[in-house]
Amino acid sequence: MMDSDLSALSAALGQACRARKLVIATAESCTGGWAAQVITHTPGSSAWFERGFITYTNVSKTDMLGVRMNTITQFGAVSPETAGEMAQGALEHSHASISLAITGVAGPTGGSPDKPVGTICFAWCWREGTGSLVTPACQRRLFPGDREAIRRQSVIHALSGLLERIAAIP
Q1: Measured between alpha carbons, how far is 40 from 50 in angstroms, rounded to an integer?
Q2: Backbone dihedral region of 145: left (phi > 0), alpha (psi from -120 to 50 degrees) or beta?
Q3: Over the stretch 33-88, which tens digit does the pLDDT of each residue have?
């Protein structure tokens, strides 16, 4: 599962977090902790990675992250809205300063006409200097391939998005 691209991404994240004194929390559903695994692959990551939540079910999303059941009912577990609440919840239930969330349909089954296999929703959230949370940045993407390819692309997109946001934080 770990290759040179993922290792390089983790190392770049570590360098960016150390430079900005940021600590990461992850909230993952369809990737099952893969993003956290990539991050912790880098020696010394305990200095910039606080914890990961694997919230595969709706109940775990509400119990562990505080995602509102109303959000899941109205928009679905695979939605930018749910991803946003997951990212906020990861910060609210940790000591991290920045978070990412991933939720989606990795397949091979489980898709629908409006959320086909490969539909993945992401969110990134961080604490301002005052400690208050910013509004999460949310995205929805459709990735091609089999389950493994979709999950890998999701991890890369989530971690790359985190790097972009770290660079943009004032």
Answers
A1: 10
A2: left
A3: 999 999 999 999 999 999 999 999 999 999 999 999 999 999 999 999 999 999 99
Give the pLDDT confidence of 109-165 residue by residue, as tens digits. Answer: 999 999 999 999 999 999 988 889 999 999 999 999 999 999 999 999 999 999 999
State the total domains in the chain: 1
Boundaries of domain holding 8: 4-168
Query: Interior CA angle at 5 toward 104 and 44, to 5°?
Result: 95
CATH of the domain at 109: 3.90.950.20
Give how far Cα 141 sits from Cα of 29, 31, 144, 150, Å.
Answer: 15, 14, 10, 10
pTM over 0.70: yes
Structural contact between residues 87 and 124, judged by C-beta atoms closer than 8 angstroms: yes
List the structure tokens of 134.
Answer: 């910013």
